[in-house]
Each structure stands twice: as C-alpha cells, then as structure tokens.
Amino acid sequence: MKATFQSTRPANLHSSRCRARGGPAATGHPPHAGRAFSLIEMVAVLAIIAILAATLVPGILRRIQQAAYTKEQTDLTALADALETGARQNRALPGPGTWATFVGNTADKGAGGVVTTPRGYTRVFLVDPNLRLAGASLPYTQTTNGTPKPVSPRVMILASLSGALPIASGTPTAANFAEIWDTPAGSVPASWTTYTGSGEDLLIQRINLGRLFHRLVLINNDLNNTGRFSIDGGPAYPVPTTGTGWDTYYVDGTVIGLHGADGSLQCREILSGDVSYVYEFGYWRGLIHEGRLRPSRGMQFAAAVQQFLNTARNPGADFGGTQQAVVDQMYTYLFIYTLWSGDSPCFARHGSVNLQQVPHYQMLLNAQTMLDNVSKNLLK
C-alpha cells in the first residue's frame, strides 16, 4: 500500500508570489492598461480651443493695434513739436528733403528714427503746394526782411501701421494735399487704391505753421528823426518814413531791437505775438490790438501837438499868437484843471460848496481866459 502525502503549502502561494513580483494574476487575464482619449473627445477639446481663440485673439490683436496706434500718435506729436521748436531755434523751416535731419537734430535722434516707424514703414512729409514764405515754398530761412503774411502755411507728417504709404515726401498737387488734409480719422483717401492698410492703420499729423509767425509793425511818426530796428542782434536799419512803415512777419522768439536815430539801443523784445511800435519824439512806444495799430490816447494827443507845432504860423496873427504859446497855455490850463478837479464840489466828499469857494477855481478861470486870448490872437 502506497503512502499518500498531502502538501502543507497554501494553494495560493504561487499566485501570491507572482503578484508580489508583478506577474500575471492567477486568473490568467492580462494586466489592466491606462484609458486613452477617444477621437470624439479630442475633436471636442480642439473645438473648444478654437472657440476660445476666435473669441480672445481678436481682442488681443485689437489691443496690440491700439497700443501701436497710440504710440505712433504720440511719436508724431513729438515730431511736430520738434519741428516747431527747431523753427524757433534756427529761424528756419526744412523742406521735404531735409525734414528728417532737421527734426532729428532738434529731437536728439537720428534721421532714421524720424523717418521710420517702429514697424519699419517710412513716414512721409508733405508740404502744401500753395505755401508761401517770403514768396517761396519750403525750405525757409529768416532774414532781416522777414516775410509777408504766410500763405497756406500747412504741412503734414503721415505714418502707417500696416502697409507702405502710396505717396512719398514732397509737394503733392493741391487736390491731393487737400484730400489727405481733409481725410477723417479712421478713413483712407479715396485716391489711395493701392494702399493695403485700413483707415485704422493711417495716421495724419497736421501742422499749421501760421502760429509760428508774428506780425511786427513799426511806424515812424517823428518828423525830425528816423527810428531804427534790428533783428536778432543784427545791424540797425532805418524804419521807412513813407507808407505803412515796416510791416512784416517773423518767427516766434525772434529778438527785436529798437534803436534811436543815432543807432543806440533803446529796448529789446522777444517776439511772442503780434506787436507794433511807434517812434515819436526820439523814443519808441506803442502797441497793436486785434491785428490793428492802436496808439494810446496820450500818444495821439502828443502826435497832434507835434503836428500843430510844425504847422506854419498864421502871418496875420497878433503879438503873442504862436503855436508854442497856445501849447504852453493849454498845459497850464490842464495842470490847474487837475488841481481844481481834486477839490471839486461835484464829488460827494466835498459836500455842497459853491464853485467860487473851491481852491484853484479862480486860477482855472484865469488860465481859461488866457488860453482863449492866445488862441484868438493866433487865429486872427
């Protein structure tokens, strides 16, 4: 009889060891793998990303475009300011061929930084074809003669954010210049059919140069002498004694020197607005108001007295009847009148007092009588 032996090892020992070593389970099934995205799920994710991009990207691009537009607008304003500053400093204005260097020198940047935008497009400088300074277009350099009133003193600086401008720096036709000048913001000139940018890509900096020029009027009312003037420390020239004197325009900041007949400097003025002076009795004085010469009342009176004194004496005048005697007596009368008016009973502070009781009243009557007598003697 054979002996039967029964193993005391657990039946699942092999299976446990296999699991411990990472082997297959005793069930015989393959190990479980990670679950992957299905095609439908991937399509859905891509669709969501596309929707988000379509929603967000245009806004981001608009912000980028707006930032570029704002920066270019700021740059153009700075270039216009530099152009005007350079005009004041140099008493000159550049033409289309030299504007970038002119502005660059004033703004402490090279001509390349002036003529080229950050995006690499070329800026354009345009001059009104009707512009006239001293009878010519730009460039302009101020001389002692200045210029007549500026005619159509307009220029433009153009810039593009997308696409090259279809026009070069220069002096276009009057129609083209007017079309560009009048183009509203956000629009493109109708004739620019080859321009690839939009109205939001075009920037136009309009500059009216008229505000850079001020009128100077000099009148010589002195019958015996001729006043003189100088420009920016130059020689002193006589003011014409005929016509309207000296009437011209100079660049803002020009130094005007006013000299006596002997050339001696009486005063200087930095031109910052329209101004006029009158030379009378050897001195300069006067002002301009609302574009017209307006002497003070004192100047008008003095001019009338000067004219009166220089008039030929009446040959039939009585003894003592001269222009000088009348002027002297008029001065005496006015002086006493001033004293009397200070004590006049017409003013409430003096109360109700008879005129005869007011000091200087009798003196005033006497002066008036003398003035009447001298005047009558002159007119006989």
- Secondary-structure-derived class: alpha+beta
N-to-C order of helices and strands: HHEHHEEEHEEEEEEEEEEEHHH
Total helical segments = 8
Largest sheet: 4 strands, mixed
Given the C-alpha coordinates, what overall shape results?
Answer: elongated
Low-confidence stretches: 1-5, 13-26, 288-293, 347-352
Rg, please?
Answer: 45 Å
Terminal Cα span: 190 Å
Tally of DSSP β-strands: 15
What's the structural domain tally?
A: 3
Word description of this protein:
The structure is a single chain. The model is unreliable at 1-5, 13-26, 288-293 and 347-352 (pLDDT under 50). This protein has helices at residues 13-20, 39-90, 99-107, 111-115, 174-181, 297-309, 323-342, 361-379; strands at residues 92-93, 124-127, 140-141, 154-160, 202-208, 213-220, 228-231, 237-238, 246-251, 255-259, 265-270, 275-280, 283-285, 288-289, 292-293. It has 8 helices and 15 strands. Helix content is 35%, strand content 17%. Helix 2 (39-90) crosses helix 3 and helix 7 packs antiparallel against helix 8 (361-379). It folds into 3 domains: 43-211; 213-305, Immunoglobulin-like (Sandwich), CATH 2.60.40; 312-379. With 380 residues, the protein is α+β, with helices and mostly antiparallel strands. The protein has a 4-stranded mixed β-sheet, with no helix packed on it. Strands 8-7-10-11 form a 4-stranded antiparallel β-sheet, with no helix packed on it.
